[in-house]
Each structure stands twice: as C-alpha cells, then as structure tokens.
Design a protein that fits this description.
Number of strands: 12
Number of helices: 14
Order of helices and strands: EHHEHEHHEHEHEHHEEHHHEHEEEH
Oligomer: single chain
Largest sheet: 7 strands, mixed
Shape: globular
Strand content: 15-25%
CATH class of the largest domain: Alpha Beta
CATH architecture of the largest domain: 3-Layer(aba) Sandwich
C-alpha cells in the first residue's frame, strides 16, 4: 500500500526494497557494453544457472527481451506461432511485426496453453501452400488466463511437436518464478523445454528496472549484438543489476501474493458471479473478470482508495505483489463488495 492507496493495477508498481537500495548504492560497476560490469555479469551468470541455460543477457525490459528472441530466432517474413492472448501478440504494440518483420499466426490459448495439435496442423499446412512457421512462443504464467502456469507435461508435448517440425521455442517467462512457486516445477525444468527464456525482475520481485534473456551461448551472443542495434546498451548498469540479484533471492515470497490473489478472486466471484472469475483457477497473482461498465467500477474503486486496471474491453484485472499486504487485500475486498 503506497500513500494510503491500494495499487492493484500491476505488479510492476512495486518499489525497490531497502536491501535493494543498499545493494544499488554499493554496486561495483563497469562498462557493460565492453562486458566489464562485474555486477551485470554476475546477474547474467546467476540467472543462466537458475534456468539451466548456457548464457544470459540483461535487458532494460521484458518487451526488449522478447523482441531480441524474435530477432535472433527468426528471419523477416517468417511465421511465428503464438497464443492469441499472449503478451508478445497483443500487448507489445505490434513490435514483433515491426522489429523482426515476422508474421504472427495466433492460436487458441483460452486456458493459457497452446495445443501441440495446432502446431502440428500449422506444419502440415505448409504442404498446402501456407507459410512455414519457424518459432513457437509460449507465455508462463499466462497473464490473460488469470496468470495460469503451464503444466510441465503440456509444455513437453508442445516442445515435441515443435521439434518434429524443426521449430525453436521461446518462453515469455515474465512471471516464470510465479509459475515455479505455484506448481513446484523448477524454473530450470520449464526452461529445459524451450530454446530461450526471459524473466522480468521488475514485477513482483521488486527490482526497479530490467529483465533477463537466457539460452544457448551463440543465440545470446547474437542477441547481445541485436540489443546494441536496438539501443539497449546500458553502460554502468550494475547499479540496476544489483537490485536484480536481490530480486532472485525473493522468489519464495511470491506464495504470499498467490494467496492474496485467491482471496480477491473470492470477493470478485461473490460480487460478479457471472463475470467468469473462478477462484479455483487463480493459482498465481492475477485476477480477471468481465464487467459491463468498467469505467464506473474503476471510478468506484479509486474513490475507495483502490486502483485497478483493464486488459481488454470489458475485462478488469487485479494483480497482487510485494507492496500489497493482508490489510490492503481486506480493503480491496470491501470495496469490491460495495460496488453499486
């Protein structure tokens, strides 16, 4: 809770913890474009080890990390298979088409997963004069599906279908560690099923800036060159990477966010029984539901000191995070219950 306001718009609104601020103030730095920032190097090595990949690259944002993966795993004109509601498809401003020059083939992903049968169909369609895909993108957790984590078995099946067609797989793991905590599946086990993986450090993990992309050493080397082309060289970025190192030590506490999100989901389902919010489906920190008058609802909540947001016309979202405690959840639940 910040300044008496319960901010549930996103887990990006978290503020650096006191430990992070101390780490940032004392960070050893160098020029990262020359590969000489020891704190950035340590963050990249730590993340790569955490997800079981050869190498990693620190980036200013999750969008840039996703775009770098697209740039190095495809060529202009290629087709990318991705869930219709994934971040890389609808929440990055058409960046994939502009930056990588690729065509997105949007697949059904209502439950947060992409069917291997759909991948197999797209590969078979090449024999019928349709474009050949070269990459599959997945999102874990899948924000639009109430932060649904991928079942590992489903991801393994998808990887098998992709591998049968020679396709690479990129995981937008902006909230990968939420998936790890919710399912008990190690981040490295998820990452073993994909070519590249990225995670945000600036969401529920409280770092002020930054995401990390990991994968094979040659792929990450190419991504480093593309990062420079996209203006992503950050020089003495150890000041930021120091916060990221602290963030990677905060993963276990995400369980608190998940429990608080389930409490909010119950309040939402009680007030909007036809809104499509199933508390039993909320396993991480995202709650969504349908509402006929979102402007009126958001205004009512704001008047009660609770900030919420929308992700589509008529779809409201609440996201729990480090700066939302039990008292804040109680206040938000009361405001939801009192919605006229």
């Amino acid at each position: 809770m910040t300044g008496g306001v319960v901010d549930l718009r996103s887990d990006t609104v978290t503020r650096p913890t006191p430990e992070m601020r101390r780490a940032m103030a004392g960070a050893e730095v160098g020029d990262d474009v020359y590969g000489e920032d020891p704190t950035v190097n340590r963050l990249e090595e730590t993340y790569a080890e955490r997800v079981g990949k050869e190498a990693a690259l620190f980036t200013p944002s999750g969008v840039m990390a996703n775009q770098l993966a697209l740039r190095v795993l495809t060529r202009p004109g290629d087709t990318v298979l991705a869930g219709a509601r994934q971040h890389v498809v609808i929440y990055e401003g058409g960046a994939a088409e502009r930056n990588a020059g690729v065509r997105i083939d949007a697949l059904a992903d209502e439950d947060g997963t992409v069917s291997p049968d759909d991948v197999a169909w797209a590969l078979d369609a090449v024999q019928h004069h349709q474009p050949r895909p070269t990459l599959v993108c997945v999102e874990n957790t899948h924000m639009s599906a109430d932060g649904a984590p991928w079942p590992l078995a489903a991801l393994q099946q998808l990887r098998a279908a992709a591998a049968a067609g020679g396709l690479a797989v990129h995981m937008d793991g902006a909230r990968l560690f939420n998936a790890e905590v919710a399912t008990g599946t190690a981040a490295a086990s998820y990452a073993a099923e994909v070519t590249t993986v990225m995670s945000c450090l600036s969401k529920g993990l409280c770092a002020p800036v930054g995401s990390v992309l990991a994968g094979p050493a040659d792929v990450i080397g190419a991504a480093r060159a593309e990062r420079a082309r996209m203006g992503g060289g950050m020089r003495q970025a150890g000041v930021l990477a120091a916060a990221g190192l602290v963030a990677l030590r905060m993963v276990d506490r995400l369980a608190e966010d998940h429990e608080r999100a389930r409490r909010l989901a119950v309040a939402v389902a009680d007030r909007w029984p036809d809104g499509g919010c199933d508390p039993g489906r909320v396993r991480t920190n995202v709650v969504t539901w349908r509402c006929t008058d979102t402007v009126r609802l958001l205004d009512h909540l704001a008047a009660a000191g609770v900030l919420a947001g929308t992700i589509a016309p008529g779809v409201v979202r609440l996201v729990t995070h480090h700066d939302v405690d039990d008292a804040a959840v109680d206040r938000a639940a009361a405001a939801l219950a009192a919605t006229p």
